[in-house]
Amino acid sequence: MRKTARRHQQGEESRLRILDATLAIAAERGYDGTSIALVTEATGLPPSSVYWHFRNKDELLAETLEHSYRRWRETAPTWQDRVGIADPAEEIRDRLHRASRAIVVSPEFWRLGLMLGLLNRQQEPTARRRYLQVRADTRSAIQEWWEQVLADGDPDRRSLVAGRMARFHLMVMDGLYLGVRSDRGWRLDRLVDLIADGVYAQARTWLKEAA
Amino acid sequence: MRKTARRHQQGEESRLRILDATLAIAAERGYDGTSIALVTEATGLPPSSVYWHFRNKDELLAETLEHSYRRWRETAPTWQDRVGIADPAEEIRDRLHRASRAIVVSPEFWRLGLMLGLLNRQQEPTARRRYLQVRADTRSAIQEWWEQVLADGDPDRRSLVAGRMARFHLMVMDGLYLGVRSDRGWRLDRLVDLIADGVYAQARTWLKEAA
DNA sequence: CAGTGAATGGAGCGATCGCTACAGAGACGC
DNA sequence: GCGTCTCTGTAGCGATCGCTCCATTCACTG
Fold this sequence. Notes:
Oligomer: homodimer
Radius of gyration of chain A: 20 Å
Shape of chain A: elongated
Largest sheet of chain A: none
Number of strands of chain A: 0
């Protein structure tokens, strides 16, 4: 199968190969479209190796989701540290640009996530639950970031608006990804600028209005 | 299997039963998660009946997509006729409300469409191609509608902006659906109002700016 | 009342599914 | 050199997959 002599004790490398292959396959074909046979074909490893590293298909895909998230975080901005830009509007533009670029450069996580998110069987796959968890974590990280950006106003109100903005933020990212993918003719950077300004204006409106 | 005597010559009814069942299944489990066995189980009809009405699984799902689109159109607004609201902002709000409500009331089409849109195998299913076609048609219908709403400005510019707005419109719908589905705590009507106003403001900006 | 044709019922084909059993290969400590 | 542990290779299990064959049923026509 492979010409090069495969040395042993290299489990970690094989595990990674399997995760990468599964990610590529699952991001293109979804949960049910991903088969162990496709993974073994892509990696050159036998099914027994796959099952040595992962308990079953369900766990394989759950681990793949987390793997893809880790990969995505390498490209995407971290929400913890702020860039130190004085103008809030500018900072938001910067964030959205980096996030949208991450989606374009390494789209596997977002693709796979959306596919899992849309799934709705009675027996929920672990990968889906894991995705929702990751999404919720991301959302609260974004919320904290927004609370810092919206420096003024009373804390309760600011926190509420920041929560809305975080949801809104994710919503925009989803729409952005699908829109750019499904409909030709978008100029992404230009679009993101406009959306960023709109988003910020929305936050200001929410901050000011009553209840 | 069925107690009631099933009269013959009722192919059309069976065909509908199959399409409805397939739609429910496919909207929850996606293309590969949909199996003929699940359809026969849900309808009480044998596989031979399914294959009498549809050439194969690929065609069954393609027909299901179009069926779901027809169903959706029963709930969703038609883009051809305008409601006759004087204020453009108001009219846009009305449209978006009706569209978003259609997505909530009868979400199968949108769900299935998004799932098919995300698919990306080398051998593209007919259902996916059919979805992209339907989406493109819808987009141009929305574009024409926008051209009428944006009454002023020179025609070329207006057409260009209307094209952008149509893409933007679909993008918002996608994000809206996923956002409401994935993240708890949205108040849909309120959100749609805000988005509608933002969208209209965006259109005015695009109309005014150069090139 | 025979003949026709739309549609169903049921059995089952070969292929692929997820997964397992088990022997073997090779890097280790002793 | 010898056992040990990690990981691979092969073969194949039972279940399900998409799909087909073909007899049967029944509303029709003549």
